[in-house]
Amino acid sequence: xxxxxxxxGYAVASKPPTRENYAEAIRLFECALGFDAGSAEAQGxxxxxxxxxxxxxxxxxxxxxxxxxEDLIARALAASPRGLAAHYAKGNLLRHMxxxxxxxxxxxxxxxxxxxxxxxxxxxxxxxxxTGSIEEAIPALQRALRLSPRDTRxxxxxxxxxxxxxxxxxxxxxxxxxxxxxxxxxxxxxVYGWLASAYALxxxxxxxxLELAEARRLRGHGSYASIARLGADWVHAAPNIxxxxxxxxxxxLRKLGTPEE
Length: 261
Known about the structure:
Helix content: over 70%
Oligomer: single chain
């Protein structure tokens, strides 16, 4: 029964990210832990989806999810130091906290244990971007897409490639990748925000306004209300990346009338 519940949890967690899929995966992994409270595998898997819905902006209980994930990760790694899921969850949690340098070894450890793990490659590339090594981001993200082209996270990875192009003022290339990301993962709020900026920079104001409205609807809670509020999401990024954000992403949103404060 535990194995069946656990397998169902992984099957749901492998679906495209939505609030409903995250909630169902969490329920199933909680059931698996009910059968075996000391299972490092189940602890790691539950931590992955708890952190995942925080990172993907699909929870109204972010603080509680983070606190619970921290406890699960600590217990899982104490019981099984080579557990892939726990290392992945820890890397994602550190990344969410803005501790990108600390997250990198977690993803590198995963790749050491399984060099064909696509998520670790993608998130390693993302952390390289956020620590200022922008030239290392796209190769790592493309490696993830080659390893798992039909992955349910592929939309996220494509969108990140799009953002890197946007930051480097390759707006048309950015839109191609962001559209690809949105098509694959239509429930991710931030992809619409990045697209809104890209379209605004290209002069397609009406299309940009539609994308921004959808980003606000999906994320909720007064999101995209000001440049200052959005800037808080990037406060831990390297100075060169924040400079590029100002010149591209935030510049596009300013064209749409997003206020500074």
